[in-house]
Each structure stands twice: as structure tokens, then as C-alpha cells.
């Protein structure tokens, strides 16, 4: 939708009006037939139609282009009242700068920043409202350090709040201790499994060494027996040599 034409000061050229809503162009686009539209208006129109609403020529979203520069300049120079005129704002500025002004306008209706408060109030009166808002928060005046809402003043009990806070801290501490305990148990189990695995590997290596040693002892005994046999054969040969 465009800008309400009643907000503008002086004459507004017909060419600067949206061909659909007939208000002053907002975020304008232009068709090949040179008819101009608000972006929101023409996009909504093309959902159900495929032609220009003025001359019925066929158009497509891809054919829409920004407004000619000279028309854009004429549009930006138009003077209009702030949308908060009904609340007392008397500002009149160019269309080019109206958005910036309205974002900062002291007469704009804005929501209270306190959680839970649904009041809409003029920006210029916000500080005064925050000072008395029933949803404003502050620290307990009795020194317990608890943050309370003004609406809870009569129900606030320092001892009860501190007891609740203590219970929460105790519960949190118990949870953390349990988490640390589970983590340590998990680490110990992991280390225990690693040690058992390592022990099994070492035991296998010891058994293999024992097996190798047994084979070596057997080989040594065989060599010693062969050496005795060889010595006996030499002695026998020596005897036979002497007899000859």
C-alpha cells in the first residue's frame, strides 16, 4: 500500500500515484508500459492477474523495473506530514526523509520495555511510564539482593526468597557433584579396562617368551646330545686308528 495522499502538502502529480491503490507510490516499480505501482500492490495483483491493471498489457514480475530517476527525484521531494500528526507531531518533511523521522519521532507509539507490560505509550513519555510501571523491576530494599517487580512488593518475603535460592543452589551443587562423580567413575572404568587389556597383552607376551625359551632349551639339549655323540664317534675313531 502507498502513502495516504491526504498526508501530503500541496499538489501531487498524477504520475506519482499508484495505479492500483491510488495513493502516493511507496517503494515503487514500473512496468514496460510505464505505469507505476507500489511494490506490494503490483506483487499482490500479479498473484491473480498477468496484465497491467491500467491498460491490460501483458506483464510479468521479471519485467518490472525501478522508477525513472527524474520521477524518483520528484517523489522524494514531496512534502508530507508525520504519521503521528494525530498525536501532536507537527513535523512536515520530504518523503525521502520521512522514514528516518518517524523511526525517531517523539510521538510514536512504542511498547513498554518491561516484560509483561502491554502498554503502548508515546516515546516522549516512556521514561515517566517506566518510573511508575507496575512491571518495573528493582532490587529488594531490605538488602536480600533479590530482584522484584513492583507488583510483588507486598508479597515479597526475604527469608522465603533466600531459602528458595539456597535450595536451588544446593540442588545445583548436588547435580554438579553427581556429574563429577559419574565422570570420575567413567574415567576410572576406562583406565581399568585399559589396564586389564594391557595386562592381557603382557601375559600373552610372557607366555610367548616362555614358549620361545622352552624351544631354545630343547634346541640346546639337542645340540649337547649331538656334541656328545660326535665326541664319542671321534674317540671311537681314535681307538680304531690306534689299533690299526
UniProtKB/TrEMBL annotation:
Top-level taxonomic group: Eukaryota
Domain RING-type: start-end pairs: 18-56
Biological process terms in GO annotation: regulation of canonical NF-kappaB signal transduction
Keywords for this protein: Coiled coil, Ligase, Metal-binding, Zinc, Zinc-finger
Pfam families assigned: zf-C3HC4_2, zf-TRAF
ZnF region ranges: TRAF-type: 101-144
Gene3D superfamilies for this protein: Zinc/RING finger domain, C3HC4 (zinc finger)
Domain TRAF-type: 101-144
Keyword Ligase: yes
Coiled-coil regions, chain positions: 192-243
Molecular function (Gene Ontology), one example: zinc ion binding
Name recorded for this polypeptide: RNF41 ligase
Organism: Indicator maculatus
